[in-house]
Amino acid sequence: MARGAALLATLMVVVMVVAVVVVVATAADVPFVDTRDGRVSGIVEESVKGRDFSSFYGIPYARPPLGRLRFKDPEPFPDWGAMGEASIPAPPCIQYFSATERVGIKEVLGEEDCLYLNVFVPKINGDASFPVMVWLHGRKVHPWQCPGVPSSRPPGPRHRAGGGAVPAGCPGWVVCGELVTSLTRGAACVLLFSLLLSHCTGFLSTEDLAMPGNLGLKDQTLALRWVKTNIHLFGGDNMRVTIFGESAGSAAAHLLMFVPEVQDLFSRAIMQSGTALTSLTINNNPRKEAIEVGGSLGCPTDQGSNTLLLCLQGLDAKALFPRYESSRRWGVLPLTFTPWVDGRFLPRHPALLISEGRSTRVDIISGITRDDGALFALPALAKKQLLEELQHNFSMAGPASLQLEGRSEDPEAVARQLYLHYLGTTHVTEAHADDFMRMFTDHYFAVPHDRISAHHAGKIYRYELQHYAQLSFGQLICPSCDNKWVSHVDDLYYLFRGGPLLSPRTAPPQRPKDLQLPDDLTLRDIITTLWTNFAATGNPTPDSSLGFTWEASTPENLQYLSLTPSPSMKPDDRKETRKFHNSLPIQENLMLHPHLVKVPQGATRSSRHEL
């Protein structure tokens, strides 16, 4: 069953070995690697800039999570090298397709048997080993996956060896072809992998060994172990691995910094619009959700966890998705079936571990898009019913819109405080659009990003994407809106091309499938160069080739790089915003800096600390 839940969604690893040589043999234009279990052959493809690279698709890294393994910890696949040909991608993990879901079209796609990875390397021979990058993507179908296509190859690069025809309507290709072959550093190896993604099955937990939960994170861990053990076969240096991700994938990268068994599996991280400190990430009551799901599906909920498990294992995978939808109270919120603090895999709440200085000391790039909160504001502006719910039923809709249930003793009061601070009212109209979006941006993205920046032990390079490109995810959420917001997901247009997420079938036919304007393409080159430079050297601007220097921030100076076609450093401009947010009596604040929290009369700090 798909596991990449509200937090992770289809995990994908882009393992990119940053350099110019890689150990990959070719014969008759068919690349191959020799493993202890046999020879694995791939295909030759071409990047968007015409550079050749080698691709190896559909390599299993875990046993299929079927039957007795549904809802259980993943088990490694024993003999992946015996697969022979690796030329066709595996299907995506089963999931709700969120890109069409946001415009009212609900469809389930993918398969349970989906724990496979893809490796991409330059079409060059050599005997050196180079840095590796691993991509963890968010809670959406990955840009290159093909809904409804059981096994298919992305059509962007021209496949010339070992391949079949590309099905009509299959999405575009990841720009990691440029990361593989590219720029000043070049990338010698790229690997993409899927993890079990369903919002229910990835993180459904009875808080015991029957259904331990956190399976999406555990899938990621197992895939990283595969990298540790096998990436040298493709030219990768398993001692220099950078994980990077967007949205829930970024939050996953942050969470992995607190997982003891993952400490030696990566050395750097890039976090794009997501942290472990947002209220979207940690589930405080997973057992309650598991019992509700089981009961709604006719499973016994009063005979113990194992009985519930056996019942759920016997159901069709798609039966769980309506249960996920029924948990929402305001649009797509609150998000449920997310990681939880189990005391074993994830030992304590990330905010507590940060306050105690207990996280992996790695250097990171961390940033947001200027208007990340458009992800939640635009659906409400497009669907006026959500605004009416705020007006007529704020006690339910207000806390749900800000994911405050279980994070404050009085979630309605905190929600009202936030709405009044930003909008001056809870009766939201189109006239409040900018303030509405800014509230979501600060609450879910900007302030949590600042919090980790102020407490991170390693070096941190901060950024904010401020360029509004030809293509924006916001255009898909609300086609009638003309806000020019740099939305959540917009950073992916610089890393990926087309696909069902960035160019879904619901998009207007005249909408371009990829960025075309010179400024947008310039920024794409800048971002891919910065990311690969960081993976290669630990410094995104190790020389003067880009014409600017990205300076690291410190807890005392939260400066950041403004990502535009002409990037420049900007000073910290959210001090007053943080002061307000840090005073709110919510769980993360009480763990990180209780002395800053303004506790309402009649409440105690200790009681809030235990939320």
Automatic annotation (TrEMBL):
Pfam family, one: COesterase
Family of this protein: Belongs to the type-B carboxylesterase/lipase family.
Record keywords, A-Z: Glycoprotein, Hydrolase, Serine esterase, Signal
UniProt EC number: 3.1.1.-
Keyword presence, Nucleotidyltransferase: no
SUPFAM superfamilies: alpha/beta-Hydrolases (SSF53474)
InterPro entries: AB_hydrolase_fold, CarbesteraseB, Carboxylesterase_B_AS, Carboxylesterase_B_CS, Type-B_Carboxylest/Lipase
Signal peptide extent: 1-27
Protein name (record): Carboxylic ester hydrolase
Keyword Hydrolase recorded: yes
Carboxylesterase type B domain span: 30-139, 202-576
Molecular-function GO term, any one: carboxylic ester hydrolase activity
